[in-house]
Each structure stands twice: as structure tokens, then as C-alpha cells.
Prior knowledge:
Helix content: 25-40%
Shape: globular
Mean pLDDT: 89
CATH class of the largest domain: Alpha Beta
Low-confidence stretches: 1-12, 329-339
Order of helices and strands: HHHHEHEEHEHHEHEHEHEEEEEEE
Structural class: alpha/beta
Number of strands: 14
Strand order of the largest sheet: 5-4-6-7-8-9-10
Distance between the termini: 34 Å
CATH topology of the largest domain: Rossmann fold
Number of helices: 11
Radius of gyration: 21 Å
Amino acid sequence: MVALFYFLYFCRIMISHNDIFSIKSKTDFEAISLKIFKHQFENNKVYRSFCDLLYKHPSDVKTIEDIPFLPIQFFKSHQVLSSKNQIQETFSSSGTTGQVTSKHFVTDINLYEQSFRKGFEYFYGDITNYVVLALLPSYLERKGSSLIYMVNDMISRSKHPESGFYLNNFEELKQTISQLESQNKKTLLIGVSFALLDFVERHNMKLNNTIIMETGGMKGRRKELIRAELHELLQKGFGVDKIHSEYGMTELLSQAYSKGHSLFKTPPWMKVLTRDTDDALTIQKEGKTGGVNIIDLANINSCSFIATQDLGKVYADDSFEILGRFDHSDIRGCNLMAL
């Protein structure tokens, strides 16, 4: 009887890829989030230990606000896995020499591919409608970048001969963009912030058919700027009315996008909440600045509930903005790293 109970229990909480990417409503999202929480509580040793330290059991969790959010630093110190399947890809964050980097162990790369493909399509439509130009030198210089994996797939699936990566060849990039503009081809230029700034310092343009999308980060190459300052410089340099942004990270398999004004939106299987900066276990109402917590249901095989080191604000329509980062390396109120 005991064996039958556990068999029925695990069958009840099994989630398919289709369940995740077919979410249509907040009710769907909450129901699947609670099922995934139960699954990860039972199958993720690191997350289970964290929940136990907080005295949080599935019987205590009735809404997504009750779910414990794992501090993102655990991806630097532990193998965060909810699956016993073989690891297919290991994504790692960038860092300076000697710095401990985050590692995301992916046991189903198809899940990541579905997530970023469906996520982009949700906001921008079919990738084949775009020529994809990538200015991501800092990521091309190392292995294990989830961003490079995603953009390489976008370039491949765009099926345009002009699509490709540009390291530091700004002259060729300028010529390519100018040619595409003259042909009225829809183009996506996606790049790391410092490289886009380097480009516009050498070349001013006036673009009508090109989306400029920054992925954030100066990577120690330039002085950090607040997003509004960065976008003002890029708007002027590229001659566009607005700058788009992609918000993602090594520890996530999904991305949020902004089509301007630094307001991000998530796909239906992803949600952003904020926590009190002095009490990390308290979820705030909309409109207040706090620590950014992310639910990414595509992370079913690692951890879907992550407390990041970003500061942000969520609005009533579920859009959000990123305002900065915590000054200290540890998230206050979650000093539970020694598991």
C-alpha cells in the first residue's frame, strides 16, 4: 500500500513540456507552479535542504507567494538538480580569473530550446522574419554560455545568409547593416552593452528596419551605466526611437524582453515577484522596490524558484523593471549557504 501511495503521488505531480508551454492563465500558472514545487521538494536535495531549514513543507504552501525561493548563489556552490537524467549541457556564468562562477546543469537541452524559441516568438514572431546579427565578443571568448547557445540557434534558424556573429569587426558590421537597411530587411542586432557602445562611438547610423537589443553588462570593459543612460546613448548612436532589451541569466532557461522604456514582460511560463530587502522571505505587493524573485517553470529539472541579486519593481500588469543590484554578495535574510 505504501508503494502504491508513492507511485500515485509522483504520477499526480508529473509535468510535461506541453503543460509548461501551454499555460494560458494565471490559474494555470499557479497550479503548475505548485506541482513543480512539490516535484522539486521531493527530487532536489539542495532545494529540499533549503526548504527544511525554513520549515517549509508542501503542506504549508498554498499559493506561489508561499513557495521558498532558492538564493541564486547556490548555483555557484552546489549542483542544483531535480532530475537523475544524464547532464547534456553545462552552462556557466562569466567571471574574472579565480572567481567562482555559477553552473547550470541541463539534463534536457530540448527544454531550453523550446523555451527560448517559444519565448522569442511570443514577443517578436517567427525568427525567419529577421536577419540576426550578434555583437557578443565577451561571450564568444569562452565556452559554456547559454546566451551564445541561444543566439547561435537564432542565427541558424533565421536562414538568412547575412545572419552571423561579429566579434570586433565594426566596419563589416556597419556595411552589413547599411546593406540590409537599403533592402528594407527586418534585422535584429543583439549585443552586449559595452560592444554596442563601442560600435556607436565609431559609427553613427539612422536605422529604420533594425531592432537594437542589448543583453546588459559591461563585463568590466567600461564604466557601468544605469539602463536609462545606456539607452539614451544607444538611441542617439543608432538613430532609433527605442532600445529593446533581453533579460536572462545562466541560472534560467527562459528570458524576459523589453520593447522599450526598460519595462520587461515575461512569457506565460515565467513570472517575476519582489521580496522585501530586509526580510527575504516576505513577498511584496506591486509597485515597491525589492529583491527580484523569479519563477521559471522551464527550470523543472533544476530549480524553478530563484531569488536573484537584482533589485527591481513589478507593476500591476506584471511588467517589471530592473533598477540595480544588491551591494553585498549575499542576499540578506538568506544566510543558509552552508548546507
